[in-house]
């Protein structure tokens, strides 16, 4: 049986993208990228929305070439090895870039629980819109938050409004440049 996790990079004021939809400020430096690479080692399944899947499709087609950075080559290898469930009412199977991906027009909490029960490792929900219902229902076991020292003043919130959860800090790191990583576990 797997666990359910939610990972995101967020501004200090709680946004994954600003009010213009810009999220370029979330781009990781080498040390943060390495932390994502380490985190991905335990992920067996990604549940994500269409836009996030299309963005991450970059890693499905990343060139396997000796002139590429070793960390990026390894991230692409790990990404390709993960099963993916794309939650989208508009995407068709023809739009998939991975043979390890499938489309689900909708994903109930019961369906999500089944995916977690069958998983051999962590199931990660990627994207705040896709994760919102699971967070509201208290199904997420781990929250992986990379906090960028930036206030953006509005935009797409990392966590849904109105949620109350008791969490405990399981890990915390501070990177050069002020980005912090905190992993919280559900109590």
UniProtKB/TrEMBL annotation:
Specify the Bacterial bifunctional deaminase-reductase C-terminal domain's residue ranges. 6-180
* Superkingdom in the source lineage: Bacteria
InterPro entries assigned: DHFR-like_dom_sf, RibDG_C
What Gene Ontology biological process does one annotation of this record name? Answer: riboflavin biosynthetic process
Q: Name one GO molecular function term.
A: 5-amino-6-(5-phosphoribosylamino)uracil reductase activity
Annotated protein name in UniProt: Deaminase
Q: Which organism is it from?
A: Tomitella fengzijianii
């Amino acid at each position: 049986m797997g666990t359910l996790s939610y990972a995101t990079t967020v501004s200090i004021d709680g946004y994954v993208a600003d009010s213009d939809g810009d999220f370029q400020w979330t781009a990781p430096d080498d040390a943060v990228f390495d932390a994502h690479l380490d985190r991905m080692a335990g992920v067996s399944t990604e549940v994500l929305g269409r836009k996030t899947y299309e963005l991450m499709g970059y890693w499905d087609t990343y060139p396997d070439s000796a002139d590429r950075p070793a960390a990026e080559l390894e991230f692409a290898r790990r990404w390709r090895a993960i099963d993916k469930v794309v939650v989208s009412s508009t995407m068709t199977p023809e739009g998939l870039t991975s043979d390890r991906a499938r489309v689900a027009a909708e994903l109930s909490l019961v369906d999500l629980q089944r995916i977690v029960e069958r998983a051999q490792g962590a199931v990660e929900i990627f994207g705040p819109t896709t994760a919102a219902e699971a967070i509201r229902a208290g199904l997420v076991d781990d929250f992986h938050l990379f906090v960028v020292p930036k206030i953006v003043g509005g935009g797409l919130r990392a966590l849904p409004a109105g949620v109350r959860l008791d969490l405990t800090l399981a890990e915390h790191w501070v990177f050069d440049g002020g980005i912090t990583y905190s992993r919280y576990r559900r109590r």
